[in-house]
Amino acid sequence: MSEMQQDAAVTNPVVPGFHPDPSVCRVGDDYYLVCSSFEYFPGIPVFHSRDLVNWTQIGNALDRPAQLRLTADTRSSGGIYAPTLRHHDGRFWLIVTNVTEGAGNMLFTATDPAGPWSDPVRLPEVKGIDPDLAWDEDGTCWCTVAGGSQVRIDPYTGETFGPPHKVWAGTPGAQAPEAPHLYRIGEYWYLLIAEGGTERGHAVSIARGRTPTGPFEPCPTNPVLTHRGTHRPIQNTGHADLVQGPDGSWWMVLLGVRPRGGTPGWHVLGRETFLAPVTWVDGWPVVGEVTPELPAPAWPLVPGPAEAPRDDFDLSELRPQWISVRDRPEEHCTTKERAGWLTLRARGASLDEPDVVFVGRRQQHLTCQVRACVDPAEGRGGLAVRLDEEHHYEVEASDGEVRVLARVGTLRTVVGSRSVPAGPVVLGVGISGTPPRDSRTGPDTVTLGIEEPDGTFTVLGTLDGRYLSTEVAGGFTGRVIGLYAAAGTVHFDWFDYEPLGL
Ligand code: 6LW
């Protein structure tokens, strides 16, 4: 490793933006990681890394309706909750809960984690969220869910054997024991869980036993990780998964948030994936503070391919970073109708409704600039910063006019507007993050407007970003910035996402 690399610090989060509930597995020199995706389609982003630090999205595990049924009744932050990713018996296994009514727990397999993944094996007898998979030495497969319920299953058929039994359910009196992961490490079986709820009280605890079904002895120093009660820049740390590094050292991926602005601080990027080193003392894991920067690990870093700021929509399929709300039928979203353009055909729904025609990507930086070239000749649509149906800011073009609109809860307003000549127009959103612990303001400022033919930017609205934060809107997701059609047909020539700061 070069001298430069030796001193290079690793920046947390390692997977920024709304990528919560990470689960990681190692196969030889390769690492794979998945996250929850809730009401978005396709679902469950899949990432690859060679160093646990640099992650590249290689696909989405659930990319067809047969795998992922999200209906208009799937509420925002419903749908796909926490997955577990494992590798066993020569294939990848993914187990996850779709909380949409009538869906439940299901298992998917793949030989290539980039896909295709199988159709679901349903697990109707497995009740509960955050399902985990672990195999005993004799090949017995144990499924453990939030709250400490465990049952033996056949992962090929979904059959369960016998009623579930209780295993360690966390610290007495602690809220919400969730995110169980069972590991065989050395002479023990370890059961890692989250507890305290996914807000500021979040924590990671662990117990160990001699068999995968326990009994389990809690770690005397539980919780082994929490940031509750601190003023650390990263909060809500919890929902972790353990993995060994290339040199045999141990690491933890986990979710956390980066609140900005005054007290209590608002986080706008959702719960992100962080990395933390783990050491072992007396057979128990010790996890230090999860910090914005980590010393470079003791192996070479392998950066992934740089992501180009511009998507020209030149491919027949959208890149895996693009997600839609609940579904993305080809008749409403295609790059095959006008070569080099994305065509969105509205279905009578605006951003206020669950079946809006929307294609976006997660906001992954506290400060960034987004621009898009839109041709509204046949309809009305534009560029939006979305948290959910009740919390979004957008700059919208129709033939001859551009408006900036905002929805926060029951409040809807037109913030600004102006007439524009017929033809394509460049819409823009500038997001500038507030410096850490700046108590005067919210987390950021969102500026919306249009780019003039001479390249200058005309602001049509400047809005406080706190109203597009989880502390205001609630929920489990984070901001998604994207393109939508509210009426008729709208064509988009290109989309630029430029990070301008962490
Ligand atoms: C996830 C569970 C949780 O399944 O929230 O608050 C759910 N904890 O672990 C969605 O992230």
TrEMBL record:
Ranges annotated as spanning the membrane: none
SUPFAM superfamilies hit by this protein: Arabinanase/levansucrase/invertase, Concanavalin A-like lectins/glucanases
Keywords for the protein's UniProt record, in alphabetical order: Glycosidase, Hydrolase
Pfam families listed in its UniProt record: GH43_C2, Glyco_hydro_43
Limits of the Beta-xylosidase C-terminal Concanavalin A-like domain: 310-498
Keyword match Hydrolase: yes
GO molecular function, one term: hydrolase activity
Cited PANTHER family: BETA-XYLOSIDASE (PTHR42812), BETA-XYLOSIDASE-RELATED (PTHR42812:SF12)
Family recorded in the similarity comment: Belongs to the glycosyl hydrolase 43 family.
UniProt-recorded name of the protein: Glycoside hydrolase family 43 protein
Organism expressing this protein natively: Streptomyces cynarae
